[in-house]
Specification:
The chain has 219 residues and is an all-alpha fold. The protein is 67% helix and 0% strand. It is built from 11 helices and no strands. The relative contact order is 0.09.
Length: 219
């Protein structure tokens, strides 16, 4: 009589690819991303995951690479400024879709391949509009840095921490009530409070406009 073989554990997979790992990492989310959380999501052993991705940095890079690949990047069109505004909105949208990504991307030891491809494609488009190579790289680098900095800063402002009833935005709002100490600053303080409590994308677009005005002057 043949002894029946035990059924496999639910969710366990005999093999998995880097694409599977990237999918699992995005499903877990950048804020909770660990080797253990992704292994659990895949239903595999923690040690098995290390054979595909040697470190958490590699895991983060693989997840970001997939996130950027999936974004709907615009074509150059006929207006360089409109093209950069649309590109900036897509960058912002990627950060919004994957919380924690904007903060992590600045600390990686390597850049995800899809990020470099988008960067070079955007810079190349600017040279076709007439920008020099140096200015094209400067503009694209400034745009991406600005998006990451503003989005990551906003995430830090609204983050709720365990055991703390106040967010950083709550404390920042109080510290920028400058008119209490300086009546002449009341108008500026009102604007700052609008920024703190407003839509961060709106403020990002205003900062971007300032950058693009400078790019237009150089052009």
């Amino acid at each position: 009589m043949t002894t029946p073989r035990p059924s496999p554990r639910p969710g366990r997979r005999p093999s998995f690819s880097l694409d599977d790992i990237s999918e699992a990492a995005l499903a877990v989310g950048f804020r909770d991303l660990t080797m253990t959380s992704v292994a659990d999501r895949l239903g595999v052993r923690h040690s098995s995951l290390y054979r595909r991705v040697p470190s958490r940095d590699d895991l983060v890079i693989a997840a970001m690479d997939l996130a950027v690949q999936r974004a709907d990047w615009p074509g150059p069109g006929t207006d360089w400024r409109a093209y950069l505004e649309e590109t900036a909105d897509v960058v912002w949208g990627v950060f919004a879709a994957y919380p924690g990504m904007a903060e992590l991307i600045r600390d990686l030891p390597r850049t995800p391949p899809s990020v470099t491809r988008v960067f070079y494609r955007t810079a190349r488009a600017l040279t076709e509009f007439g920008f020099g190579d140096d200015d094209a790289v400067l503009i694209v680098d400034t745009l991406t840095d600005l998006a990451a900095d503003v989005y990551a800063g906003w995430e830090r402002l609204v983050r709720v921490r365990d055991g703390d009833p106040l967010t950083a935005r709550d404390r920042l709002r109080a510290s920028w009530a400058a008119e209490q100490a300086d009546p002449g600053a009341a108008a500026f303080a009102a604007v700052v409070r609008q920024v703190i409590d407003g839509d961060p994308h709106v403020w990002f677009r205003r900062k971007l406009a300032l950058v693009l005005d400078g790019a237009a002057a150089r052009f």
